[in-house]
Amino acid sequence: MAVxxxxxxxxDREKDTRxxxxxxxxxxxxxxxxxxxxxxxxxxxxxxxxxxxxxxFWVGKIGTGAVxxxxxxxxxxxxxxAFILIAKIGAEVGVAQSTGxxxxxxxxxxxxxxxxxxxxxxxLYGLIMIVFRKSLIGFFNLEEEAVIQSAxxxxxxxxxxxxxxxxxxxxxxxxxxxxxxxxxxFINLTGLVANVVLDPLLIxxxxxxxxxxxxxxxxxxxxxxxxxxxxxxxxxxxxxxxxSGIHLLKKPDISHVxxxxxxxxxxxxxxxxxxxxxxxxxxxxxRWGATPIAVQKVGSQIEAISWMxxxxxxxxxxxxxxxxxGAKKWKRVRQGYATGMAIVSVIGVFATVLLIFGAxxxxxxxxxxxxxxxxxxxxxxxxxxxQLFMCIEITTAGAFYGIGKTFPPSVTGIFFxxxxxxxxxxxxxxDLGLDGIWWAISISxxxxxxxxxxxxxxxxxxxxxx
Length: 466
Hints:
The chain contains 19 helices and no strands. It has about 475 residues and is an all-alpha fold. Helix 6 (about 145-160) packs parallel to helix 9 (about 215-235), helix 7 (about 160-180) packs parallel to helix 12 and helix 8 runs antiparallel to helix 9. It is globular, with a radius of gyration of 22 Å.
């Protein structure tokens, strides 16, 4: 069969044109566009969160010691997200703005460099985790030797799969920034399904599989994320508009590395400090024993239902604002922000009602020990009061990312997150006890939501009206 290169080139260009029209966010109904973009992103966020939730569900069948081990090691996978954000934010914002400007050559430069950065950071971070594993877990002053060893084992295994853990969010950001949020949703969902199947088999040792407990949870997670990465690579090969002509082994352009780092570093710094602050708070919590650590870990996963939902709108807002900012459509940027805020406000109020009035059934689903359940109920009720403000903060951060301003969300988040430490120390030394730590977290979230929203409104007022 003869090959006609000119005909094939025309077909590729026609396909690229159809894809550009499909994922154009600068025209059409704003609410419909945001929902079309946000719903798959929320699904992706839930799929990502569900890895930990499923681990906690099955590990919880073993006991609070196992939950504490996974939760403790999980702080370092949480910290890894700070480094992921360097490449992820740069990819999402760069791809969105390049799409709005119809600069496909510049878009591919963002794609190549963000993937290169992600791989390098994954290898470096994983190596550090493995080399310093004992000291890192020792920071939390866990008293039970079995819990300490389980936490070390979990950390080492997941560190071996950090390349997958870093690449999946970056691939997701590339597709989201282009306006295609369905592709990463289905790919991440496939990885989640694999995790759902593997977790009980490897943790509890069902059928011919050995009972690996905490180690099983780690192995299942790495395999599942590896499956998702493999599918992303296959999809990338079939998406020439984004990935054709990209040579990952080519020496990085320092100017593009700086551009991506400039976009991602403020957010990465905020996320990293947030994780470190969480570790410090965990150390303060450890004065009450291992059970409160498990309570915080499970409680934060339940609370993640709302911030993952808002996170979906954050990425949708970032892509929407980024494309319209690139196209210089400021009126549409304003309308999109107002629409997004109205939507997430409803989500925030619903989350508050759910956490306050559904605290017991939600928490007891994961842990059935009465002491842990009672502590978990208090956690969810106190954190439930700040859900609305947390949702509007997260969505507003996405709007800032879209216009390339990552500093305001970062400085606001860092300032109020740091205040959680003295707040927790002061409030927990009163009659509030352990609840004082939860109050410090909730109050800081309220302030972050208010301050960041007012800041973005001020920025919008200074921009053109058209």
